[in-house]
Amino acid sequence: MTDSRDSLDDQADPAIPRRTVARTAKLASLPLGIAGRAVGGWGRRLTGQSAEDVNAALSAKAAEQLFEVLGTLKGGAMKFGQALSVFEAAVPDELAAPYRDALTRLQSAAPPMPARQTHRVLAQQLGRSWTKRFAEFDDEPAAAASIGQVHRAVWHDGRQVAVKVQYPGADEALRSDLRQLQRFSRLFQALVPGTEVRPLLSELAERMDEELDYRTEADNQRRFAKAFQGDDQVLVPRVVASAPKVIVSEWVSGTPYSEIIAGGGVAERNEAGRLLAEFHYSSPARAHLLHSDPHPGNFMLLDDGRLCVIDFGAVANLPDGAPRTLGVMMRLALEGRSRDLFEVLRAEGFVRPDVELDADDVYTWLLPLVAPLTEDRFHFTRTWAQKQAMRMGDTRNRDFQTGRSLNLPPQWLLIHRVTAGAIGILCQLDAELSVRDIVERWQPGFAD
């Protein structure tokens, strides 16, 4: 329970806007504002401006408003925006600039909570004498996350540490945001093509309690750190201390993937992509876990050439590793065995028993998605991502009808979303790599 004095303090200087009415009003302003601009755009078309120019202007303003609201609200709204950020590569080039800028800002920027509020949370979680645990503590946040902010500090033994402190009211904000965002899922679907928004929101809601308890995140991080201890390609910072709303881990400095995306050289982009793909496909085998929050803010390239991975609030447990069936489906698609592939898809629930589909149509729909496995080195580009998004989103296309008739079983939702997110980052990196070699090494069922 929070006493009345704390409640007044929170209202006067909140880390997250906590009142449901206020948060709902901000989120509700999104469809109204976008609809209003659409009406204005229709009027400008009547006065002679081209549809392309008007649509580009509308999309730019819609993206700006969308991510400004999401970033200001933090909580579930910001988390949803971060989840969308990896699909930026699929946005057409003429509309991509405002999305790219807004999404990059959203990955790391949000208004910080006041120092006194941060100290209150630390005292509640680490004890009233929490300052004795640190030799130094910087009150100015070094980074912001969806439900917390990160401070740089020095642990009492001299180690440089990162201290993630959860925003007061994060639980209320998450629940309120996700309820409201689900109401507007069709709007977001139109703004971010090639993305299934409603299942993404449902998944975020289902995993909410895991992310709110930093002890779960700390346990996930410890398991990853143990699995990759001493690895020459991947570094997972070790956990120093944890509590339900505070987690302290070793501080690591490196080049964020967002900076590499914005201005990295060809060799740096390719290596960053290779390391990400290696981590994604090897984690289920090495740690029996899958890092399930793939956006550029969670990855850094270190000076020694290793990939540093942070933020383990969203992690999938895969006690048996990656499903063997996934590798089998990849292999059957590459071998052109459309009938065998169709039977596997039906057995796994991708084709519902009451749905009639042609095996060759399903094969044609799926084949472009395994294109990265057909070449010794595949170049992941925004153009390729945009082509796939247009192919799946064009209602005149036969592939659209085939895709709409397929089903995504619940047990495959997370793997599908995380893999799509990782591919989205590879396309943002414009990375060229031998992804087939990585899949052959780590994905069960593929090389059988």
List the helices and strands and how they pair.
Blueprint: H1 4-12, H2 20-46, H3 51-73, H4 75-85, H5 93-108, H6 115-126, E1 134-137, E2 143-144, E3 148-155, E4 160-166, H7 170-183, H8 185-191, H9 197-206, H10 208-212, H11 214-227, E5 234-235, E6 239-243, E7 246-250, E8 255-256, H12 257-263, H13 266-286, E9 289-291, E10 299-301, E11 307-309, E12 315-317, H14 324-334, H15 338-348, H16 359-366, E13 378-379, H17 382-393, H18 398-405, H19 410-429, E14 432-433, H20 435-442
Parallel strand pairs: 5-11
Antiparallel strand pairs: 1-3, 2-3, 3-4, 4-7, 6-7, 8-10, 9-12, 10-11, 13-14
Helix pairs in contact: 2-3, 2-7, 3-4, 3-5, 4-5, 4-7, 7-9, 13-19, 13-20, 14-15, 15-16, 16-18
Protein name: ABC transporter ATP-binding protein
Domain ABC1 atypical kinase-like: 105-328
InterPro entries: ABC1_dom, ADCK3_dom, Atypical_kinase_ADCK, Kinase-like_dom_sf
Summarize the structure.
The protein is of the alpha+beta class. The chain contains 20 helices and 14 strands. Helix 7 runs antiparallel to helix 9 and helix 14 packs antiparallel against helix 15.
